[in-house]
Amino acid sequence: MRIEMLGIEKWYRKKQVLNGLEWRLEPGMYGLLGKNGAGKTTLMRILASILKPDAGEIRVDGSPIRDIKEYRRRIGYLPQEFAVYPEMRVTEVLEYLAVLSELPRAAYRPRIKALLKQVNLEEQAAKRVRQLSGGMKRRLGIAQALLTDPELLIVDEPTAGLDPEERIRFRSLLTASARDRIVLLSTHIPGDVEAACGQAAVLDGGRFLFRGSCRELAEKAEGKVWQLEVPAAEEETWRQKCEVLEIQGQGKELRLKILADKAPDPKAERCGGNVENGYMVLIRSQEKGGLG
Ligand SMILES: Nc1ncnc2c1ncn2[C@@H]1O[C@H](COP(=O)(O)OP(=O)(O)OP(=O)(O)O)[C@@H](O)[C@H]1O
Fold it and tell me: Is residue 111 included in any domain, yes or no?
């Protein structure tokens, strides 16, 4: 499957939230990064065919979507809030959703069994949804999104609120499912994109600031991000003097992450380029009025 977004626009009343988005997706894993309100969920919902764009179109393998039912059979979607029936048992939820997706009974029974194994919920198969932990619920969410063996899997903010172990487990699950399909993962967490995705995009105010490989995103920070330890009492001075991206530590010593073209101090150490720093460089440059 190949997905192309062409000039996608979306307005909520008089507010434009997506502005002429162009992006092309092929099998592999993509991370969609952006601040709160950047438009990530809106774009995901358009791709999931829940919302219609006000302008532009989505093309699938070069053609506009004509048969929405057929398109929906080819995609899986895990929304930000995956609210399922708390009193239902795990297997019942999946059976119920399989029936809604019009999967034949003979096909869905073995499929559900295999999926529960894949997402490591075999032991919870007979449990009620309300008895599951947050991480287990997310894994159930992925199982339902994979029910129809979709060619495009859309996952909105999957790791929010998960502990580190569950986050890693969830990421691995997504990476494994991206072998022969498109997986699009929206998140605030650059580390998740770095760990799991080959490609990324950064959305800000409804426009893409970046589309490309994670390596290219990391390179945006090359030579521009510095680390410096300073006495806590100097925090305000440094904030006024430089573009401080991040402050770590408490007590007498603080570690600052500073955005600057040259070393802000002889003691400053250059930080390596990574997705998080690349992302911060892009967002800060945008806030300062464009990438010039
Ligand atoms: N149904 C709606 N009606 C009006 N405005 C909306 C609606 N849904 C979203 N918005 C606005 O559209 C913009 C984009 O929202 P969206 O939820 O797509 O962003 P997001 O990047 O997913 O944010 P978050 O990371 O907080 O979920 C925001 O300014 C939001 O307030």
Answer: yes
Whether residues 97 and 127 fall in one domain? yes
Is the domain of 248 the same as that of 170? no
Let me know whether 205 and 261 are in one domain: no
Distance, CA of 60 to CA of 64 (rounded, Å): 6
**Are 115 and 152 in the same domain?**
yes
285 found inside a domain: no
Same domain (yes/no): 183, 240: no
The domain containing residue 256 runs over which residues? Answer: 225-271
Q: State the ipTM, two decimals.
A: 0.95
Ligand 1, atom 1, residue with closest C-alpha: 12
Q: Which atom of ligand 1 is nearest to the CA of 45?
A: 18
**Local structure of 247: helix, strand or coil:** strand
Report how many domains make up the chain: 2
Tokens of 289: 């009025």
pLDDT 10s per residue in the chain (292 long)? 999 999 999 999 999 999 999 999 999 999 999 998 999 999 999 999 999 999 999 999 999 999 998 999 899 999 887 777 899 999 999 999 999 888 888 888 999 999 999 888 999 999 999 999 888 888 899 899 999 899 999 999 877 777 788 888 888 888 888 888 999 999 988 988 998 999 999 999 999 999 999 999 999 988 889 999 999 888 889 989 888 888 888 778 899 989 898 899 999 999 888 899 999 989 988 887 754 4
- The most distant pair of C-alpha atoms in the chain lies apart, rounded to whole Å, by 69
Tell me the CA–centroid distance for residue 39 and ligand 1, in Å. Answer: 6
Measure the CA angle with vertex 129, ends 128 and 133; round to 5°. Answer: 115
- Give the Cα separation of 70 and 9 in Å (integer): 24
Question: Which residue CA neighbors atom 7 of ligand 1 most closely?
Answer: 12
Backbone phi, then psi, for 169, in 5-degree steps?
A: -60, -45
* Ligand 1 atom with minimal separation from the 206 CA: 14
Are 27 and 77 members of one domain?
yes
Q: Is the CB of 36 under 6 A from ligand 1?
A: yes
Q: Are residues 7 and 124 in the same domain?
A: yes
